[in-house]
Amino acid sequence: MKRLFLCSSFADVANLLIDFANEDLKGKIIAFIPTASLTESIRFYVKTGKKALEKVGMIVEEVEITQFSNEEISSILHKCDYIYITGGNTFFLLQELKRKGVDKIISEQVKSGKLYIGESAGAIIASPDTEYMKNVNFDPIEKAPELEDYSSLGLVDFYTIPHYGNFPFKKKGEKVIQLYNEKLQLIPISNKQAIFIEDSNIQIKDAR
């Protein structure tokens, strides 16, 4: 069964993961990929996300894609119980995943049943492609000068709009709706919401 937990701000919806996972999280190993945040000046969400995972007893194994070898990355992604990708620059993240073929490994692992947690940029790249965010300058595309195409993980058929209605992305989120509402299946979520995906079953949940 394919399972994904997509959100805008993981620390704000972390309590929902316990319900969604439907298992004891204590001692579970989670591959934590903060690569998208490397180009950002504001990175507090990396620390708060990691703390939220540790608070429920998970073992966080950080995998910074640009610093690990292909063999190390592959080994961790195959042995872990969960995969987590933080927010940051969507295009830089996609560039680095493609550079080392990590996009293919993640897709294979998730399609075989490993639970995927995507926060902001990590939620966007679960979509078939990321071009819908390029055209509203959701993230600076110049941070990914070697990105040649916008095809993404393709784990879901819809396109997530994270931080919908939240500062400082409010106008950009509205612009995505304006441009693509009749062309793509868009799912906007605020910082206090998460999308639960179990195969073809999709639910939007509000944080308690």
Automatic annotation (TrEMBL):
<dbReference type="InterPro" id="IPR029062">
    <property type="entry name" value="Class_I_gatase-like"/>
</dbReference>
<keyword id="KW-0645">Protease</keyword>
<comment type="similarity">
    <text>Belongs to the peptidase S51 family.</text>
</comment>
<dbReference type="GO" id="GO:0006508">
    <property type="term" value="P:proteolysis"/>
</dbReference>
<keyword id="KW-0315">Glutamine amidotransferase</keyword>
<dbReference type="InterPro" id="IPR005320">
    <property type="entry name" value="Peptidase_S51"/>
</dbReference>
<keyword id="KW-0720">Serine protease</keyword>
<protein>
    <submittedName>
        <fullName>Peptidase S51</fullName>
    </submittedName>
</protein>
<keyword id="KW-0378">Hydrolase</keyword>
<dbReference type="GO" id="GO:0008236">
    <property type="term" value="F:serine-type peptidase activity"/>
</dbReference>
<dbReference type="Pfam" id="PF03575">
    <property type="entry name" value="Peptidase_S51"/>
</dbReference>
